[in-house]
Amino acid sequence: NAGVMQNPRHLVRRRGQEARLRCSPMKGHSHVYWYRQLPEEGLKFMVYLQKENIIDESGMPKERFSAEFPKEGPSILRIQQVVRGDSAAYFCASSLRQDTGELFFGEGSRLTVL
Amino acid sequence: DQQVKQNSPSLSVQEGRISILNCDYTNSMFDYFLWYKKYPAEGPTFLISISSIKDKNEDGRFTVFLNKSAKHLSLHIVPSQPGDSAVYFCAARFIPDKLIFGTGTRLQVFP
Question: Exposed, middle or buried: residue A21 (CB in 10 Å: 0-12, 13-18, 19+)?
């Protein structure tokens, strides 16, 4: 299966804990995007990364959230000191190039904060 | 501010008839528009796209129309099939990199 792989699919954390979500893009894709979907809402852009570079993080909350896409390994979205409002589905997407905007999405990671 | 709007949260259509999903946008700088389909507990799947320099793109049963003067696009599905039942998201690309999504329209196709 050469699709975008996200894990874990489901993650439960208590308030104040850390959440780490991982994303392996499609083979050959060098552009990775993270989106968040709150209940009954659309997908909200968070961050766009290429290998070892954050290109656009304009959608990331200023505190507690960080993302990386290292030279080797998956992209990681990290949420420190989680709060109940962080409960959402987090989707990773990858693309081969930028010119059409077509993104290939993973199945998402659903974070529940107790 | 919601730059991409899907004002109909749901739509119900009989099998074999046409489904028309609508989307409005506010930013004339968007250069590509896309439709994604999403089933529960799955990620969105790309369906069809259109460049801002065109007014129509067709792919099998799916056609997207773009009216730039009205800042409006629509997705036509004909004939509709029960397997088309899903949530459809309209998205617009904001140069150079991010997609702005609408809130989605839940389509139900009944026999």
Answer: buried
Whether residue B49 and residue A48 make contact (CB cut-off 8 A), yes or no, is: no
Q: Which of A98, A106, A107 sits opposite B97 (nearest CB)?
A: A98
Question: How close does chain A come to B46, measured CA to CA in Å?
Answer: 7
Q: How far is A39 from chain B (nearest CA, A)?
A: 10
Q: Looking at this protein, which amino acid is placed at residue A30?
A: S
Query: How close is the nearest chain B Cα to the Cα of A1, in Å?
Result: 15
Residue A89 DSSP SS3: strand
CA distances A59 to B21, B31, B34, B50, Å, are 27, 20, 20, 25
User: In a structure prediction context, what are the per-residue pLDDT tens digits for chain A, which is 114 residues long?
Assistant: 469 999 999 999 999 999 999 999 998 888 999 999 987 788 999 999 998 899 999 999 999 999 999 988 999 999 999 999 999 999 999 988 766 678 899 999 999 999
Q: What is the dihedral of CA A94, A96, A97, A101, to 10 degrees?
A: -50
- pLDDT band for position B1 (cuts 50, 70, 90): low
The answer to whether A42 contacts B98, with C-beta atoms less than 8 Å apart, is no
**Which A residues, 43 through 102, put their C-beta within 8 Å of a C-beta on chain B?**
43-45, 48, 55-56, 58-59, 91, 93, 98, 100-102
Query: Residue holding tokens 């329209």?
Result: B105
DSSP letter at A26 equals P
What does the alpha-carbon distance between residue B84 and residue B90 come to, in Å, rounded to a whole number? Answer: 15
